[in-house]
Amino acid sequence: MANIRFAVGFRPLLLAGCSSSSPLIPNIFLISLYYQTYPPTFDPSQVDPGVTTAIANIVGQAKLQVRVGYFGICVNPNGGAFLCSNNATSLASQVSVDQDPLNLIWVANTFKNSIVFPYLIIVAIVLAFICFLLLATFPGWHQETDERGSERDVKPFPSRPVSQVALALIFVSSIFVLVSVLWQHTASVAASTIAQDLGNGSVKSGVGTAAMVLGWFGFALLIIVTIGLLVMILSINLVAQLTDEE
After folding, report:
1. Least enclosed by CB within 10 Å: which of 23, 76, 77, 227?
2. What is the pTM of this model?
3. Burial, 198: exposed, middle or buried (Cβ in 10 Å; 0-12, 13-18, 19+)?
4. Is 232:28 a contact under the CB 8 Å cutoff?
5. Cβ–Cβ under 8 Å, residues 216 and 181
6. What is the DSSP string of 48-90?
7. What is the largest CA-CA distance in the chain?
8. What is the pLDDT of residues 135-163, one digit of tens each?
9. pLDDT digits 0-9 by tens, 36-70
């Protein structure tokens, strides 16, 4: 029960990343794009290595940082507080051309709208919550009086159909979370790498550690719940078979 409560609780926190300027929320992001001057990477496959100088001249002294979440974008124009919104146009209107000369806000918005897909996680949250409600119907410990008149603590077996439905729900929820987290991880790493290569020497990028930890840790908790329910059902079936044989 505790594992599934934590698993259900982590999912909304992951989805809430970059949705507001509240403390810690801007730190939960999928990717981060920001202007920073560093020695460019040169490679024989580059047709025009000198383009890095042109990009550096365009970027100038820009320090803007953009973070992308499932439903929002956070912008830090000059090293101060983050401005967060789900509307990239309103964020862009608060930033000057010198602060975002390469349109990183637009790039971040394109990533959010075209690549990020949060709906598998939403479905997984609903399924896990229904499973939690089913688990809450399982009988608990209570006292009964035996034939000798003494009281003893007993705990009846949960309903088999309810247990099987709960197992099916949490299994499907785990699959959805696995697909979503793999999608999130792969897409974030790919987009981050490409963005940094295009801004070679002037733009850096990174993948949000907190979002990755929340995603994979939540999946691990769901797997533990799935295995626990499976072991419980198999144990109940085994006990029932042994009882019938006697």
Report:
1. 23
2. 0.81
3. middle
4. no
5. yes
6. -TTHHHHHHHHHTT---EEEE-SS-EEEESSSS--EEES-HHH
7. 93
8. 877 665 555 555 665 655 555 666 778 88
9. 999 998 988 888 888 999 999 999 888 999 999 99
